[in-house]
Amino acid sequence: MKMRLVGPLAARRVSPREALDYSAFSMNHSQPGETSELHVFEKFYGANSLVADGFETYTDSEVSDSANQPAIKADVVGRKGEALTLVFCEAGDSKRIEEEALTRIEKSENARAVILVPMGVDVDLSNLGQERIKAGKVVVEPLGWFLRLVDLLGNETRMRMLAPLFRKTGAKKQYRTTINPKLVYKNLTAFLETGLVDEVEHGGYELSELGKSVMADFIAFLERTRRTLDAASKVREVKTK
């Protein structure tokens, strides 16, 4: 039996621009009352991957294989011809994906599930089944890279080195005037290894295309997280009065 997308889709379609711009994505694809910024970022990552692979991509959409059974809601759904990829984000409500839903996806002719799991988020994946994973019907993708990115960019010294590169080329000798030389070399090595910066002539460094995209998305992520925390703080203040 084949699965199909159901319900209105136009407003949920992820555009190529939104798949590359976290700020635009979060503005148009966050659900009312959604408080987990990590959940939004997971959806962005899933949508970005599907669009890059040539899928028509939709957020918070439903698929069905029968009029007699309830639709399965996924955080992100990609469609390429008849093939469907359902993305479930473990930081969101879909972490309670039911065994019955997994069984229907497993038995379908054209669907598979991708489950995004941030490292450090406590989730129970015992119901997935090794046979499903071996058959490629269920893929579990740990997002340990996300925590590594936060560790890399969530450091004041590293941000002091990276932020000016939005405007101009940086040089070791300039960094060494305000930052411990050992940290300069250590951080530049990390930036080069992760592909965030490129080394140019005369000992200069510039943000790579990847670095520009990652930095812009990361700053947008931090800003939205700040606003979310501010709003939550105001709610707590009202409740305590």
Q: Gap between N and C termini, in Å?
A: 56 Å
Might you state the CATH topology name of the largest domain? Trna Endonuclease, Chain: A, domain 1
Shape: globular
The helix count comes to 10
Major beta sheet summary: 6 strands, mixed
Q: Which stretches are poorly predicted, pLDDT < 50 over at least 5 residues?
A: none
Rg, alpha carbons: 21 Å
Strand adjacency order, main sheet = 1-2-3-4-5-6
Structural overview:
- There is one protein chain.
- The chain is an alpha+beta fold.
- It has 2 domains: 4-142, Trna Endonuclease, Chain: A, domain 1 (3-Layer(aba) Sandwich); 150-215, Winged helix-like DNA-binding domain superfamily/Winged helix DNA-binding domain (Arc Repressor Mutant, subunit A), CATH 1.10.10.10.
- It is 46% helix and 21% strand.
- The chain contains 10 helices and 9 strands.
- It has helices at 16-20, 22-29, 37-52, 99-107, 130-134, 144-153, 156-162, 172-176, 181-194, 209-240; strands at 4-6, 56-64, 72-80, 83-89, 111-117, 138-142, 170-171, 197-200, 204-207.
- The strands form 2 sheets. The chain has a 6-stranded mixed beta sheet.
- A hairpin with a 2-residue loop joins strand 3 (72-80) and strand 4.
- It is globular.
- The termini are far apart.
- 29% of the residues are buried.
- The mean pLDDT is 81.
